[in-house]
Amino acid sequence: MAVFSIVRLRELEGAKRLDAEYYKPEYMEIMTKLTSGKFLYFKDLVREIIHPQEIKREYQENEEGYLFLLAQNVRPLMLDFSEKRFIAREKAEQLPKNLLEKGDILFVRTGTVGVVAVYTGEPDKVIASAHILIGKPNFKISPFYIGVFFNTYFGKLLIIRGTYGALQPEISPQYLKKIPIPIFSDDLINRVEDLFFKAQDLLKCSQSLYSQAETLLLEELGLKDYRPRYEKTYTANLSSTLYAHRIDAEYFQPAYEEIIRKLKKRNIELKPLKEFILSIKKGIEIGSENYRDEGKPFIRVSNLSVYGFTDRDQKYLSEELYQQLKYDYEPKKGDFLLTKDATPGIAYVVKENIEGIISSGILRLQIDENKINKEYLALCINSIVGKMQVEKDLGGSVILHWRPDQVKRLLIPILPPPIQQQIASLVQQSHEARKRAKELLEIAKRAVEIAIEQSEVKALNYIYSSYGG
User: Fold this and answer.
1) Does a structural domain hold residue 304?
2) What tens digit of pLDDT does each residue of 387-421 get?
């Protein structure tokens, strides 16, 4: 059955768009719904929308410069700095328009378009890449409420509506300015903002707990202040190259062996990962022709972090294909996931059952819990101890693939069970705080949707019944 919309000529001229997708009925219905009540266009709520200048990516190892905010660091209503990059202070201060201020509304401009966060002022000294648009608020209404709106069903669809470009979708500042923002009472806006900040506090708590776990691990291993020293020139014996079946210089970088020597010097027992693996199985590649816009998640390497699953550039598969594959490729609570391609060496213990299928770039391991604590094991792999070994294995590869035989040889430092449990407890507490933060953000988003669809009264009642206060 054909689906069509009838659009006035003046609407075509105003949008400067002739493609039928732009005028899909659901988009037109949303625009009608949002403009039927009290609203302001986004252009009336910002001083300007900045397209940051391109920055030459010359990262520095120390943390004395400015945090460099990449598109992949911007998550829905949060900033994820599990992987940090720093830019020298002198270079950052030459680009004042790229520097973030509290309340800035951040839009991923290219790639995973539609991801929106708001900068809370923490961490300080952050500079944005050219792949992020910065909405500078005029504070007529809370920018944090605006950020929540852009993450609702309505806000996300309107951003998707404005994308252009087939291979690398983009969004323009001019389009964003025309998006209507519903205006509600101060009571509802303040409640939504309050939920947003309570979620941010929980996220900070989560990061702090995870950092405590990392610090405890490195202290026990004698690596708390360790920084690898990469040599520019070095030698290797011919026998070593024959044993390793490698002749690339990167593999024999002394820094890789230095960290192992430090552990042995402290009499830390090291065991290969294979001693803890009961079974190992990789995911499946379904082919891009099977990607769908909605359905069950197809979990790729880009959808996994040390904190868990993310929806970055999420792809989906049909219900039918999911049913065919779920028995063999759906992760279950307690499964140990480990990435082997693209960004190898990310380890995560699944905290709750999830409906989805893992890609072939992810290994699913069954770990013998009588020999090692799984959360402790994951942290070891995600720490500098695991990262240095993975870096050595990958060497100068252009396309990154970590082979299963290399995975099994990964050396794991063994600490006493009580220490393992203490570290695991901190990781688990970190997860619980992060989970609660996401729940609060969902309440905030749903409340705004209810206010749009039904009424403010029902939205406020929903907040009271879901959260209280």
Assistant:
1) yes
2) 999 988 886 566 678 999 999 999 999 999 999 99
Domain count, the chain: 2
Backbone φ and ψ of 446, nearest 5°: -65, -35
> 80-97, pLDDT tens digit by residue?
887 788 888 888 888 888
What three-state secondary structure class fits 372? coil
Residue 122, number of CB atoms within 10 A of its CB: 11
CA distances for 258 relative to 227, 345, 412, angstroms: 10, 20, 15
Classify the C-alpha dihedral 178-182-185-190 as positive or negative. Answer: negative
Q: Are residues 258 and 149 in the same domain?
A: no
- Structural domain ending residue among the three candidates 366, 386, 414: 414
Query: How far, in Å, CA of 147 to CA of 355, rounded?
Result: 28
Do 48 and 106 belong together in one domain? yes
Global confidence as pTM: 0.88
What pLDDT band is residue 2 in, cutting at 50, 70 and 90? very low
108 shares its domain with 227: no
CATH classification of the domain holding 104:
3.90.220.20
Q: How far apart, in whole angstroms, are the C-alpha atoms of residue 277 and residue 410?
A: 12
Question: Does 23 map to a domain?
Answer: no
227: left (phi over 0), alpha (psi -120 to 50) or beta: beta
> β-strand 296-299 against 411-414: which pairing, if any?
unpaired
Question: Could you tell me if 365 and 314 lie in one domain?
Answer: yes
Query: 233 with 375, same domain?
Result: yes
Q: Based on the domain organization, do 234 and 378 belong to the same domain? A: yes
Q: Strand pairing partners for 267?
A: none
The verdict on residue 28 lying in a domain is no
3-state secondary structure (DSSP) of residue 78: strand
Based on the domain organization, do 292 and 178 belong to the same domain? no
Whether 146 and 245 share a structural domain: no
The answer to whether the beta carbons of residues 279 and 365 sit under 8 Å apart is yes
Query: From start to end of 147-289, where are the E strands?
Result: 180-182, 269-272, 277-282
Q: What does the pLDDT read at residue 47?
A: 96
pLDDT in tens, 183-223: 999 999 999 999 999 999 999 999 999 999 999 999 999 99
Cβ-Cβ contacts under 8 Å for 91 (sequence gap 6 or more): 55, 56, 58, 65
Range of the domain at 105: 37-183
Q: What band does 166 get if pLDDT is binned at 50, 70 and 90?
A: low
Q: Does 31 fall in a domain?
A: no
Question: Which residue is associated with the tokens 């792809």?
Answer: 315
Q: Which two tokens stand for residue 290?
A: 């099977």
**Looking at residues 134-146, what average pLDDT do you find?**
97
Given the structure tokens 């770990």, which residue do they identify? 367
